[in-house]
Amino acid sequence: MNDPDKPEIGSVIGYRILRLAALLAHEAKQSTKQLVDLPQASWRVLIQLAAGGEQNPNVIALELALKRSHVTQAVRELHKRGFIRERADAEDGRRVLLSLTAAGRKFVERGTLAFAPRREKLLAGLSPVERRSLDVALARITANAERMVAEADDSGDA
After folding, report:
1. Using only C-alpha atoms, what is the Rg of the chain?
2. What is the model's pLDDT at position 158?
């Protein structure tokens, strides 16, 4: 008999999101190599730069939850292919800022189009209203999680 005060593990939002993330990561690793001929970390760095503009590699590593060494390797690959540029940070000459080149922007556009059928397959069966609701819900959950992490970080400093 189910205890109403004990949720089933399959209904716990964190579990469901982690399970979905694991499934998507597994599938994305295969499709990234096939669709854009890049390691997954390199593609993620490109997408991060496309979405957020010029950024420091340390920030990218934090945002993408990647090891700094994976970002360094991705930066080497992307620089060699002419997709990103580096410049010294004017505020702190020891830091580097990365941005997309024109070739990098075009590559992201083509890659995003290549991934469109995969996105549609993932969202198949959801109505436009459900898709919008999912988008809004995920944005709110993400914002809540970011606040929780910041609060935990702040309380750890005390």
Report:
1. 19
2. 52
Residue 3, burial from CB neighbour count under 10 angstroms (0-12, 13-18, 19+): exposed
How many other C-beta atoms lie within 10 A of the C-beta of residue 111?
18
- Domain residue spans in the chain? 9-124
Which overall architecture, per CATH, does domain 9-124 show?
Answer: Orthogonal Bundle (1.10)
Q: Which positions ≥6 away from 44 have C-beta within 8 Å?
A: 64, 66, 74
Tokens of residue 154, six digits: 């702040």
Asked whether the beta carbons of 82 and 103 are under 8 A apart, the reply is yes
pLDDT tens-digit series, residues 52-103: 999 999 999 998 989 999 999 999 999 999 999 999 988 888 899 999 999 9
Distance CA 96, CA 59 (A): 11
Do 43 and 60 contact (CB within 8 A), yes or no? no
pLDDT tens readout for residues 108-150: 999 999 999 999 999 999 999 999 999 999 999 989 988 998 8
Predicted TM-score (pTM) of the model is 0.77
Judged on CB neighbours under 10 Å (0-12, 13-18, 19+), 105 is middle
Beta-sheet pairing, 96-100 with 84-88: antiparallel
CA distance 155 to 79: 39
